[in-house]
Amino acid sequence: SVDCSFSRGVCNWKQDTDDDFDWNPADRDRGDGYYMAVPAFVGHKNDMGRLELLLTDLKPKSNYCLIFSYRLAGERVGKLRVFLANKKTASVWEENKGKDERWRTGKIELFQGAETNNSVIFETERGKGKTGEIGVDNVILISGLCPED
Predict the structure, then answer these.
(1) So where are the chain's domains?
(2) Which Gene3D superfamilies did the record assign (predicted)?
(3) What is the separation, in whole angstroms, between the first and last Cα of the chain?
(4) 100/45: higher pLDDT
(5) What is the pTM of this model?
(6) Which residues, 6 or more positions from 57, have their beta carbon under 8 angstroms from its beta carbon?
(7) pLDDT above 80 (res 57)
(8) CATH number of the 2-143 domain
(9) Using CA atoms, how far apart are residues 104 and 93, in angstroms rounded to an integer?
(10) Which of 26, 30, 48, 128 has its CA 20 to 30 A from that of 8?
């Protein structure tokens, strides 16, 4: 497995320069490192912020599972979507409201065909809310299919 978390991960993360705002590091409650977040008050309604995970050295014709923690805290905070670079038109995962402020786990199966995915994009879309944040943390890539809960 490959640890792509932000505090001590080995992966290559890049801010999109064609979007409306950047993701920023935020300190974890326990004080052990940080996660990436977009506060609710950044930007205007429907503005987008994209954070790209560059994937290298993935074997063609292989299955991978991307596991990550996410949180949508606050009323009408917006949407969190995940895109694969070679399928930019439709998201492969989307969440638009948190039931509470707890961290949850997202899982996405990646199949590397002859044409491999070279990146995964985490995109936030700003909602109407003025408080809260959208956060992503503990991003891990494992080979094989995603485990059942």
Answers:
(1) 2-143
(2) 2.60.120.200
(3) 17
(4) 45
(5) 0.91
(6) none
(7) no
(8) 2.60.120.200
(9) 14
(10) 48
